[in-house]
Amino acid sequence: MEVFTSIKGLRSLLDQQLSEQKTIGLIPTMGALHEGHISLVDASIKDNDVTVASIFVNPTQFNNPEDLLKYPRTLEADCAMLEQAGCTAVFAPSVEEMYPEKSSLLINFGTLESVMEGASRPGHFNGVGIVVSKLFHIVSPHRAYFGQKDLQQVSIIKRLVSDLAFNLELIVCPTIRETDGLAMSSRNRRLNDAERNIAPHIYRILEEAKQSLLAGKDITETVSAASNAFNAIPEFKLDYFEVADVKTLQPIPSLSAAGTNAICVAAFLGPVRLIDNVVF
Ligand SMILES: Nc1ncnc2c1ncn2[C@@H]1O[C@H](COP(=O)(O)OP(=O)(O)OP(=O)(O)O)[C@@H](O)[C@H]1O
Ligand SMILES: CC(C)(CO)[C@@H](O)C(=O)[O-]
Ligand code: BAL
């Protein structure tokens, strides 16, 4: 496995592979890798000749400076995991390599970003849109892999691919969870032991809300019961709990066809903000 910090170095490998008609899979990440990321790498290795994982903590998508400062960075361990998984190449550029000049691009995703993560983290999806576009241009993958854990990000990137006519296939992979249900996330490393023990309540409350909706309970009542469940655990500070259409991400008044309904949650546990969702 080769590790590249320069765009030029990575391109020379990829140009060679493309000249041999090889297919390329890209897994964009911010590092601090876990089994969730590796599941995307595994999927790419099955589908493609060449698998590139990028590791870049993208400053333009952080609206909270402390979140950026404290984001876990574990490049050496990440590379060992990727090598073990069978990844072909890692692209781990510096901020200067990705942003030689401060980017002045503005990408507006309209109603897709006016809710949930977009509403709580102003500018977040502009930064995601910029960096993912750059990664798509740099790597020119045939396929790109994203996790359902970041459900709104998936919708945003689908729109980006369509609006900017990126010639690639987006593959969405299911959320990988710890045995107690907690969605794997790099930010879980920032939880202390007490917070880590409480964190699985996020998925429990999501699942209870899903069961209650499937049993015919009203959405407003279900959301209110879920908020109460979070408020009953003083360590949590609920940011949002939304029942939405999985494509438009807009709140829905009642459930629709199976597979089109989503419940999305963001909650602070101490200083750490975690997100999760279920689609049903
Ligand atoms: N538990 C998971 N299961 C499947 N995919 C995941 C999981 N966690 C993250 N991913 C996906 O991995 C890619 C890179 O995500 P990222 O590097 O931000 O990791 P993360 O664990 O989501 O970290 P954090 O949410 O703390 O930023 C994204 O497409 C994301 O959806
Ligand atoms: C897609 C991504 C790597 C862009 O920085 C990031 O938002 C993430 O890790 O989900
Ligand atoms: N996993 C989404 C990237 C972020 O939280 O900034």
From TrEMBL:
It catalyses: (R)-pantoate + beta-alanine + ATP = (R)-pantothenate + AMP + diphosphate + H(+). Keywords: ATP-binding, Cytoplasm, Ligase, Nucleotide-binding, Pantothenate biosynthesis. Homodimer. The reaction proceeds by a bi uni uni bi ping pong mechanism. It comes from Dyadobacter chenhuakuii. The gene is panC. One of its GO terms (molecular function) is ligase activity. PANTHER family: CYTIDYLATE KINASE/PANTOATE-BETA-ALANINE LIGASE, PANTOATE--BETA-ALANINE LIGASE. ATP binds at residues 30-37, 147-150, 176, 184-187. Its main location: cytoplasm. It comes from the Bacteria. This is Pantothenate synthetase. It is an enzyme of class 6 (ligase). Catalyzes the condensation of pantoate with beta-alanine in an ATP-dependent reaction via a pantoyl-adenylate intermediate.
